[in-house]
Design brief:
With about 350 residues, the chain is α/β, with parallel strands linked by helices. The protein has 15 helices and five strands. The chain folds into two domains: about 130 residues, Rossmann fold; about 180 residues, Orthogonal Bundle (Hypothetical protein af1432), CATH 1.10.3210. Strand 3, helix 3 and strand 4 form a beta-alpha-beta unit. About 30% of the residues are buried.
Length: about 350
């Protein structure tokens, strides 16, 4: 264990070095001035510090305060060596972070005993820190495994929903990617953006509960069929909302809210404004953009510029104006995603 010793008196420094060396497993790292110590930081490695109080320019307390400015040294134990028995001096040292004192002239047996105690304390602290780090790694590993399983569940459910309508699978993946780009431009943190990308493809999962005659119809819906089709939002929210998984709960929130409108004229709950979950407001734009720019049996694909203008024209009515701004800022990324998806689809078709 490395023991930092600092004393401007050469005789005292030599004594301290010998006393440290006499303790099993301890190696002295000696400096004759505070300036030398500070110059060696933050590369200096030590486990315990022994600092003389009376030194020129920087006294021991000043040096201790400067050392503790470095994050890596804030938990190191320090002993202050002093000939001053004044209570005020000792209190100042304690407030600066010292945990023990040695009084001059130094008693070798007392010094060795105190250093042995500090070595034992430091060993115990290091073992606890190692144990805490190990536990932290293990917890992170378990959390990551659980998250991977959640992602696989979402992927499998999305895949299952696509069996009735193969185009749905491609649509959901694009919506997830677009939603992540919009969320980033909105200013959400990286984890939330990733979660939205993973959860967004589940927005139409409720379509598994829609009769094939309605879901696969190529013509215009009548009022009853339209009402049945709109029910996919509530069905999806119900399917996913019973889970304790945070990702599936987010997916349920999106499934239930992505057809709500900013002006309250959407469905299924007819909620408005910021009462609509933010993730739902973001996915609503991504969903609409992909629907507009994709060819369907009942319509041709719109140009990107036409779709952008259509969405911008509906800021404050169908869509959240702030999310529209984020969508516009994310357009370079969205165009890149469109190009990548197009290339991937073409390659798959060959």
């Amino acid at each position: 264990m490395n023991i930092l010793v600092v004393d401007d008196n050469k005789t005292n420094l030599t004594l301290l070095k010998k006393l440290v060396s006499s303790v099993d497993g301890c190696t002295p790292i000696a400096f004759s001035s505070p300036e030398q110590v500070l110059h060696a930081m933050p590369d200096l490695e030590f486990d315990i510090g022994v600092i003389d109080f009376q030194m020129p320019v920087y006294n021991g307390i000043d040096l201790l305060l400067e050392i503790r400015r470095f994050e890596k040294y804030r938990d190191k134990p320090f002993v202050v060596v002093t000939a001053d028995g004044d209570t005020g001096t000792r209190m100042t040292a304690l407030n600066a972070g010292a945990i023990d004192f040695l009084t001059k002239p130094i008693n070798p047996l007392e010094f060795q005993a105190r250093i042995r105690n500090l070595v034992a304390l430091t060993d115990a602290r290091n073992q606890l820190a190692d144990r805490a780090e190990w536990l932290h790694r293990e917890v992170n590993k378990v959390v990551e495994e659980l998250r991977e399983r959640e992602q696989e569940i979402i992927y499998r459910l999305t895949l299952a929903a696509s069996y009735k309508d193969p185009e749905t699978a491609l649509h959901t993946l694009r919506v997830g990617a677009y939603s992540e780009a919009i969320a980033k431009a909105y200013g959400l943190d990286a984890k939330t953006c990733t979660d939205i990308r993973i959860a967004a493809p589940m927005h139409d999962i409720g379509k598994v509960g829609i009769p094939d005659a309605v879901l696969l119809k190529r013509g215009i819906y009548d009022d009853e069929e339209r009402e049945q089709m709109q029910g996919h939002t509530s069905i999806g929210c119900h399917i996913l909302g019973q889970s304790r998984s945070s990702l599936l709960q987010l997916a349920a929130e999106i499934a239930g809210a992505h057809h709500e409108r900013w002006d309250g004229q959407g469905y299924p709950m007819r909620i408005s404004g910021e009462a609509i979950p933010l993730a739902g407001r973001i996915v609503a734009i991504a969903d609409s953009f992909d629907a507009l720019t994709t060819a369907r049996p009942y319509k041709e694909a719109w140009t990107v510029d036409r779709a952008i203008q259509h969405i911008r024209d509906r800021a404050g009515t169908q869509f959240d104006p702030a999310c529209i701004d984020a969508f516009v800022h994310a357009l370079p990324q969205i165009r890149e995603i469109m190009a990548l998806r197009s290339d991937a689809s073409a390659a798959a078709a060959e």
